[in-house]
């Protein structure tokens, strides 16, 4: 049992420029991509190859007619092809729905997922500093006025697992994991119709359980089926998560999700467990969990049981333990002998934050303000502590423009941001040196290694790249298996067509 699988993240950045009330966000985003491209002038000619992309293929077994879908679903549109900057670390930077987006390279571990996600921030910062443009980018998801943009996750999952089981499991996890993955937000409702503070930035923007779309009528379970790999796999595309500044929530976001997918892939009969834990109304639960800072409210399962978000997570963790115990030996305490340090780390942190949340559930608002150790692992709690302290000091309300401005500043990549002032209070897992290295070098254990190295070392030979191909002047490298073309893989003429 392991958290290790092919995974990756996508970050759409909020964007603003000094000055104008009437700034053109699409043009600003294009300017950012141009600045990123200029960091590596030798690769500016390289195109992104959309040939293998099919954004209308649905995981439920059919394809939506292109003529019948909204244009913003067609992410392979020819109009977007000039707004790409493939990176020497294996990532892709491009304009997506008027936002600059960084799509990380494929990685195998939660730690690397966090590292390469953070390296996107460094690439963006470096590009803006080099270009001298007065643009600010935000690792956030909302503007507080009704607009929301994404922070997505991708997991390569065995296609033999029925999609309905994936959907049932993930809706429960998505609705309840936000108690330790949420990054916090000022305002309740999509346009902050009510004053207040909530756990998740994204929760209020989801209105359906399952669907193909990503920018309207957002579903908890997105059904886009583009594996960028062989038909043995599906890419489970997650759009419901928050953008995190802290390491622990981000690592747990991808780590616990990967771990649960492993359990589903290896449990011989998961149906009984899934039936026992399925939410009666997952969309309402998603909203309500985010609005409950006490983490004590309960939510009904289809079988009529009432459980809190913490209790749902404890059930999920117990199931993982049960599947692991049937797969591996256990130690004298009954702890499964986890196969690698990455899995041990995720399990230990998952256990710890659930203990933290049990303490939160028993604390008053005044007591929550002094929970500094727990806030070092729970981003929403740390943000709430800072903003609530300011609210009390100023004797103001959650509708205060000051608190809204502080909320926005939290996501800013600028060195003067609120986050930079309080980052030392959080539990750091990834060193700045590792992030800087990842901004310039691809991971060595997936096909991203070949994509990045070819761009860095032989850019004049490269015509175009995609997730699963590299088009060279003398042929095409087909990389359908993301576990190959690693640092151990020799590229020769037999790989080309």
TrEMBL record:
InterPro entries referenced in this protein's UniProt entry, alphabetically: Pup_deamidase (IPR022366), Pup_ligase/deamidase (IPR004347)
Statement: the UniProt record of this protein carries the keyword Phosphoprotein: no
Membrane-spanning ranges: none
GO CC annotation, single: proteasome complex
ATP-binding recorded as keyword: no
Classification via PANTHER family: PUP DEAMIDASE/DEPUPYLASE, PUP DEAMIDASE_DEPUPYLASE
Protein name as catalogued: Proteasome accessory factor PafA2
Species of the source: Alloscardovia macacae
């Amino acid at each position: 049992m392991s958290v290790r699988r092919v995974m990756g993240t996508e970050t759409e950045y909020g964007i603003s420029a000094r000055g104008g009330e009437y700034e053109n966000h699409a043009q600003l985003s294009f300017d950012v991509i141009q600045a990123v491209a200029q960091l590596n002038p030798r690769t500016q000619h390289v195109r992104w190859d959309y040939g293998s992309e099919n954004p209308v293929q649905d995981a439920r077994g059919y394809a939506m007619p292109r003529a019948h879908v909204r244009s913003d679903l067609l992410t392979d549109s020819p109009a977007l092809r000039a707004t790409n900057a493939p990176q020497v670390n294996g990532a892709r930077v491009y304009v997506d729905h008027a936002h600059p987006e960084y799509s990380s390279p494929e990685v195998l571990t939660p730690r690397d997922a966090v590292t390469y996600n953070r390296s996107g921030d460094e690439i963006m910062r470096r590009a803006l500093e080099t270009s001298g443009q007065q643009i600010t980018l935000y690792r956030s998801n909302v503007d507080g006025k009704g607009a929301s943009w994404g922070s997505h996750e991708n997991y390569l999952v065995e296609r033999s697992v029925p999609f309905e089981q994936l959907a049932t499991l993930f809706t429960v996890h998505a609705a309840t994991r936000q108690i330790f993955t949420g990054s916090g937000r000022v305002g309740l409702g999509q346009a902050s119709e009510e004053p207040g503070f909530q756990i998740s930035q994204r929760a209020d923007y989801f209105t359906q359980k399952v669907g193909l779309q990503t920018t309207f009528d957002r579903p908890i379970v997105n059904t886009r089926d583009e594996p960028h790999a062989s038909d043995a796999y599906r890419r489970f595309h997650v759009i419901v998560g928050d953008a995190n500044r802290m390491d622990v929530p981000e690592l747990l976001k991808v780590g616990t999700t990967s771990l649960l997918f492993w359990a589903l892939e290896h449990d011989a009969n998961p149906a009984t467990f899934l039936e026992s834990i399925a939410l009666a109304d997952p969309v309402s639960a998603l909203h309500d969990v985010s609005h409950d800072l006490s983490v004590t409210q309960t939510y009904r399962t289809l079988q009529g049981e009432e459980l809190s978000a913490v209790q749902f997570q404890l059930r999920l963790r117990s199931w993982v333990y049960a599947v692991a115990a049937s797969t591996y030996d256990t130690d004298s305490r009954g702890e499964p002998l986890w196969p690698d340090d990455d899995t041990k780390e995720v399990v230990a942190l998952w256990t710890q934050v659930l203990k933290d949340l049990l303490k939160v559930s028993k604390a008053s608002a005044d007591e929550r303000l002094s929970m500094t150790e727990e806030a070092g692992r729970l981003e929403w709690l740390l943000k709430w502590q800072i903003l609530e302290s300011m609210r009390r000091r100023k004797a103001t309300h959650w509708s205060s423009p000051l608190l809204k401005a502080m909320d926005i500043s939290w996501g800013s990549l600028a060195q003067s941001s609120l986050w930079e002032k309080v980052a030392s209070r959080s539990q750091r897992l990834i060193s700045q040196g590792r992030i800087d290295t990842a901004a310039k070098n691809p991971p060595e254990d997936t096909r991203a290694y070949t994509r990045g190295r070819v761009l860095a070392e032989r850019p004049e030979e490269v015509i175009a790249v995609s997730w699963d191909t590299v088009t060279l002047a003398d042929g095409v490298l087909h990389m359908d298996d993301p576990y190959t073309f690693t640092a151990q893989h020799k590229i020769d003429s037999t790989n080309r067509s």
